[in-house]
């Protein structure tokens, strides 16, 4: 039990009469990388939103880092140690890389309330260190996000999660809008995170990517977890069968 | 933009790759404008716009004209500083001109002398209560209080009722103008104390304008407040997700803008030695125009106080230039309008070009 980072029990979310998520039981162990797969509207993003406090769950329990938690908002979840890379990259286009990494948690030289003087040198150094640690290449830290390619933006967003000592990283389709080379770069960062032993939940539609990167695959279908399989116990066709509903069953029992 | 990287992780800082600062373009426009007036003056009037041509004065530049250029924009310039940070934060403030009017009336009534030429001051509203010949700090604090209230109303409306800034500050624009007229039933208020009159004397408005501009340029560049202004104007959702307290920040932004407008009111009525209900009409639009000409993007997130200061100088040069060419004031307004629209079109064009280049 002690090596479990995140656990949900009977996690349920209904929007009026729509059952977006029903009775999801999920576990994530230390250092483990898990992929969440499923068709559009299967409940993947809903599941993440309940964990990160973006929405409030209808029913069920969540344990994080050994404690039962109920986050009022994404900021609370982040303070507890869950860093999320959102689909719509929460970056400010007109700020440079260090400013984006430290957005909302700026390091200050001395505290004068809102008029606190920023410690720009420290933030720049910390940014360089974070980018080196995640092997992210950005040509110029001083240029604004607006001037960067989609891949570079995604890398900055991911580097941000890695800058702060996080206990869990969640990525919602981090490579959906990227080219081949940029996708490879993001995947390399994920491998680096794996080497560093950082647990990760990866939402992805890319079968090859999932089999390349993660230890375990969880499949959602119509708001329910229909499969929970170790990578070596399954293959692409099997997963597709679960996603499309050709194969149903209580596969999570086998893996547990 | 080059995709190659250098050094460890491609992280070496390369000054050459820094984006061309937008302020440089604005400064270039200022230089061209001055050059154009200089050229037209030489060719058609045989006189210089910029340089001294009088034999009895020992100076290189026409210092009198330079002083007028900056003096006539410094009061609206103070407002423009506040408006700049509002626009960077993704908002707009239409109330500043009316706040100037209301504050001028209210502050002036606390800056009255007791006697004029030996008779009791006919304009002093509070003479019966003995509120005359007060120290200068009283009307200044009253003015700041007026700005604080106007800014709080603006900011709270925008942050908590979520109505568009355009509507909230439009309401304040109409209301504050009403207050300005109601305060003395439309009568102008004159006869300020000497110490109050000293605030706007000579080049004091310029000194106040430049000091405030430097202060706010530093605040926007080096403080958390400034960083959050750019972040909210650039992507409000991202700022919210990052844990920035958007509502508090917006209230503060509008409070600062209104306080700057009320300080402009103090300088204005001190300089004119009188306060009238119609003071500051259209100042809000002039201030917005100075910011826009100075490269502040109306969509938020981009711009600087330096840009706005240069924008205000462009304004001053146009007004002086037209006077210098002995053209009617009507033409000034027309050209001002064209320049404002032109600046926004240029900004849009620059953004599109960047989007393609990226």
UniProtKB/TrEMBL annotation, chain A:
Record organism: Mesorhizobium abyssinicae
GO MF, one annotated term: ATP binding
SUPFAM superfamilies on file: P-loop containing nucleoside triphosphate hydrolases
Keyword Nucleotide-binding tagged: yes
Protein family (similarity comment): Belongs to the ABC transporter superfamily.
Descriptive protein name: ATP-binding cassette domain-containing protein
Entries under InterPro entries matching the protein: AAA+_ATPase, ABC_carbohydrate_import_ATPase, ABC_transporter-like_ATP-bd, ABC_transporter-like_CS, P-loop_NTPase
Gene3D superfamilies on file: P-loop containing nucleotide triphosphate hydrolases (3.40.50.300)
Superkingdom of origin organism: Bacteria
PROSITE patterns, per the entry: ABC_TRANSPORTER_1 (PS00211), ABC_TRANSPORTER_2 (PS50893)
Keywords: ATP-binding, Nucleotide-binding
Residue span, ABC transporter domain: 6-247
TrEMBL record, chain B:
Keyword Transferase: no
Predominant subcellular localization, coarse grouping: membrane
Superkingdom in the source lineage: Bacteria
Membrane-spanning residues: 26-45, 66-88, 94-115, 136-160, 166-184, 196-220, 251-269, 281-299, 305-325
Keyword Thylakoid set for record: no
Keywords of this entry: Cell membrane, Membrane, Transmembrane, Transmembrane helix
Annotated InterPro entries: ABC_transp_permease
Compartments (UniProt record): Cell membrane
Bilayer topology term: Multi-pass membrane protein
Name of the protein this chain belongs to: ABC transporter permease
